[in-house]
Amino acid sequence: MRKTNCKYQLSVKKINIILLFLYSSVYLAQNWKLELTSNVYLRTWKLNTKAIEEEKEISGATIKLYQNGKEIDQTTSNSEGEFKIMVPPNGEYYLIVSYPGCNAKRMAVNTQNVPEGIFTENVKPSFKITGGFIMVKPYPGINYSELSQDLIRVEYFSNKKAFDDNPKATEKGLSIVSKIYSAEDVLFKEFCSTNKSGDIALEKPDCPLAKQLYQKSMALIPGEQYPIEQLAKVGDCLKEIEERKKKAEEAALAEQAKKEEAAKAKEEAEKLAAQKKVEKQEADKLAAQKKAEQAEADKLAKEKAKAEKQEADKKAAEQKNQEKLAKQKEQSLKSKPPVEKTAEDEKKLAKKKADEEKARKQKEGLAKSKAEDEAAMKADYEKKMAKRKAQEEEDEKRRLAYETEKKEHDAEMDKGNSKYKIPQVLGKDMYKENIQKADTYFKTKRYKEAKQSYEDALNIKPADPYATKRIEECTKLLEPK
Q1: What percent of the chain is predicted at pLDDT more than 70?
Q2: Distance spanning both ends of the chain, measured CA to CA
Q3: Residue 425: count of CB within 10 angstroms of its CB
Q4: Beta-carbon contacts of residue 60 (< 8 Å; ≥ 6 apart)
Q5: Dist. CA 71–CA 73, nearest whole Å
C-alpha cells in the first residue's frame, strides 16, 4: 500500500511539473511586449537677416503611452536623446512626445492581431522609429492643429511576421509635417527680408523707416532678439539726428542775429546817405533852376529858327511830291504787269504737303509698333507656359520614378524573410536601417541628412545602385539655385 501511494505521489508530482511548464510557455507567449525605441531632437532657428537651423539630441523629453485616453506608461529621453518604452499586447495605443515650449508629436501603436506563439522568450518584438521626433517651438500665424493627428502608425504585418509602420499613415504624417515646414519657411523669409531692409535703411541712414521695419519684424515673430537689438541702434541714430537738428537750429538763430545786426547797421548808413542825398538834391535843384531858365531862353530861339526852316522844307517837299506823282502816272499808263503767284505761296503749299505726309507715316509707324509689341508679349507668354509645363512633367516623372524604385527596393530588401523573422536591432542590419532613415529624411526635404545616411549605406554595401542614385539626387537638390 505504501508502495502504491509512493507511485501515486510521484505521478502527481510529474503531472504538476508538466502543467507548470505548459503554464509558463503560455504565459510567455501571451505576455510579450513590443519594445519601441527612437530619438528626440530639438530644432532651433537663429533668425536675423538669414535663417540658420540648429539641431541636436535632447534629454528630458517626455514620452507618454495612452490607451483610451488613459496614461499607462511614461519615460524620458536620455542624454543622447534616446528612449525606450514597452507597449503591451492586444491593444490600440497612442504615444505622445513632448518637450517644454515645443509642439507635441503623436503616433499610434496597434499590438492586436498577433498570432499566438509567434513571439517567445528568445524572439521578442521590437520597432525603431527611424528619423526620431523633432521638437520645434511654435511660431505665430502657423497652423499646427494637424499635429494632433497620428504622424505614424505602427502595427503587426502578417506577411512580414513583424511590426512595421503603415505606409499610408506615414505618408499622411510626412505630408502634415512638410506643410508646416513650408509655412514656417515663408514666415522666416519674410522676417529675414524685413530685417535686411531695416539694415539698409539704418545704413543710409533713414532712421524712421528702419524703426518701422524692425517693429514689423517684431510683430511677425515676437521675442526674436535681432530686431530688438537693431531698434537700440535706431534709437542712437534718432538721438544723433535730433542733436544735429538742434545744432542746426542754434546755428540758424546765430545767423539770424548776425543778419539782424548787419541790417541795423545798414539802415543807419542808409539814413545818413539819405540825408546827404536830400542836401545834394536841394543844391542840385537850385543849379537846375538856373540852368532851366537859360535853357528856356535857348529853346525859344531854337524853336523860332526851326519853325522858319520847317516852313521852307514843307514847300519844297510839296513841289517834289507833285513831280513824283506825275511821273508815276505816266509809267502806269505805259505797262500793267500780270498778277503772278509769289514764291512765298509756293513755299507754304510745299510745307503743308510735307506735314501731311509726315503725320501719315507717324500713324502707320505707331500701328506697326503696337502690333509688334503685342506679338512679342504673346510669344514670351507662350514660352513661359511651355517651360512651366515641361518642368511640371519632369517633376511628375521624377516622383513616379522615385515611387517605383522605392517599391522595387523595398521588395528586394524584404526577400529572404524566414518564418520567424523580426526587424533587426541596431548593428545587425545597418544597411537597411540607413536606407530607411535616408528615405525618411528625403521625404521631409532634409536632403543633407538624407545624403549622409545614403553614404553610410553605400559604405556597408559598395556600388549599391539605389543608394548611389539617391546621393546624386540629394547633391543636385543641395546645389544653390
Answers
A1: 86
A2: 99
A3: 13
A4: 76, 77, 99
A5: 6
Identity (one letter) of the amino acid at 290? K
Going from the C-alpha of 326 to that of each of 313, 318, 322, 337, 352, the distances in angstroms are 20, 13, 6, 19, 44
Distance CA 7, CA 479 (A): 85
Average pLDDT over the chain reads: 83
Nearest to 434 by CA among 131, 215, 25: 131
In angstroms, the CA 371 to CA 394 distance is 35
In our burial notation (b when 16+ CB lie closer than 10 A, e otherwise), range 395-410 reads eeeeeeebeeebeebe
Strands 126-128 and 34-47: parallel
Q: What is the pLDDT of residues 264-307, one digit of tens each?
A: 889 888 988 888 888 888 888 888 888 888 888 888 888 888 88
Lookup: cell for 155: 502595427
DSSP state of 339: P
Q: Which helix (H) or strand (E) holds 40?
A: strand 34-47
pLDDT at 8 over 70: no
* pLDDT (0 to 100) of residue 18: 34
Residue identified by cell 511640371 is 392
What three-state secondary structure class fits 30? helix
Pick the range with the lowest mean pLDDT from 12-26, 95-109, 148-162, 305-319.
Answer: 12-26
- Report the alpha-carbon distance of residue 476 to residue 481 in Å, rounded: 10
- Name residues whose C-beta falls within 8 Å of residue 208's C-beta, 6 or more positions apart in sequence: 238
Helix (H, G, I), strand (E, B) or coil at 101: coil
pTM above 0.85, yes or no: no
The cell 521590437 sits on which residue?
126
Query: If you average pLDDT over residues 231-253, what whole number do you get?
Result: 83
CB-CB contact of 93 with 66 (8 Å): yes
pLDDT tens, 401-449? 767 776 776 666 555 443 333 344 344 478 999 999 999 999 888 999 9
> Cβ contacts of residue 230 below 8 Å, gap of 6+?
195, 198, 199, 202, 210, 214
Provide the residue count of the chain: 481
